[in-house]
Design goal:
about 60 residues, mainly alpha, 2 helices, about 0% strand, elongated
Length: about 60
């Protein structure tokens, strides 16, 4: 039981490392993919639709 808990904690405290792109295990693959998605979203930024009035003026949200 103690060994299972230790293994679970090792997985829970695992974070992305650049080597994850080269590793073949499921956890590394998931961390690398999630890192790529977050990075893409950060680089792209937020795209917000503006509310334009009849004269093209921005209206409050």
């Amino acid at each position: 039981m103690k060994e299972e808990r230790k293994e679970s904690l090792n997985l829970a405290y695992r974070y992305y490392e650049t080597e994850d792109y080269k590793r073949k295990d499921q956890l590394s693959s998931g961390l690398a993919e999630t890192h790529e998605q977050v990075n893409d979203a950060y680089i792209e930024g937020e795209i917000r639709q503006t509310n334009n009035g009849a004269n093209g003026q921005d209206l409050p949200d």
